[in-house]
Amino acid sequence: MSGMRGGRTGRRGFLALLGSAALAPSAGAVGCAGLRPNEDHLRVRTDVEPLHKRFAALGELSDAHWLGYDLDAAGKRQAAPGPDARVRLVGVARTAPGTVAATLAAAPAGERFETVALAGDVPAPLAPYVPDRAGWRASTAYDLTVLARNPAQPGADGNDRADGRFLLHEADDRVWFDAVFLYA
Question: For a tag on the chain, would you pick the N or C end, based on fewer CB atoms within 10 A?
């Protein structure tokens, strides 16, 4: 099938799905985030399977509240997709009890976690699910670990790049994620 490699949707398949949603807005799920431009980019999602696929290093997640959308299509309807798609996944989820403490304790010396405040630009639909803006811990090395390629993850064939930030909150085992995947 066109756009399929080893059971994973490649760039062409992703763009075809995204394009079909723009042309037929009643289509249900498209692309990595399963959203329709102009309508669903602010719909808070609670499913965790897409997060497990993209962020396997975070382990089991629950109580997720997140947004996933094409940054270039959000809030407008496109006639056809562009050559590249930038999909943003942003939100908060709970990790298994004790996961954050174990991650912080096991961090190598070069993976220093610093205490940070959650950014002030939390998307409005997610604000009710993030009661604490202080007390988060972050590490650039940890960000890279989470974004490292996972063979089971879509895009592992090298057709996408990701950039993101992952903040951990030890008091209640939460993780804040804000990542952008570029499908080229």
Answer: N
CA angle, residues 124, 130, 133, in degrees to nearest 5:
100
CA distances to 34, 49, 166 from 37, in Å: 10, 21, 26
DSSP-derived 3-state class of residue 105: helix
Higher-confidence residue of 165 and 73: namely 165
Task: Judge whether 22 and 79 are in contact, CB under 8 Å.
Answer: yes
pLDDT tens digits for range 89-136:
999 999 999 999 999 999 887 778 999 999 888 999 999 999 888 999
Give residue 119's identity as a one-letter amino acid code. A
DSSP-derived pairing of the beta strands 85-95 and 8-9: unpaired
Q: How far is 70 from 162, CA to CA, in rounded Å? A: 13
The whole-angstrom separation of Cα 159 and Cα 154 is 9
Contacts 24+ apart (CB under 8 A), 116-120: 116/167, 118/167, 118/176, 119/178
N- to C-terminal Cα separation, the chain: 19
> How much is the pTM?
0.70
Alpha helix (H) ranges present in the chain? Answer: 11-23, 49-54, 99-106, 140-147
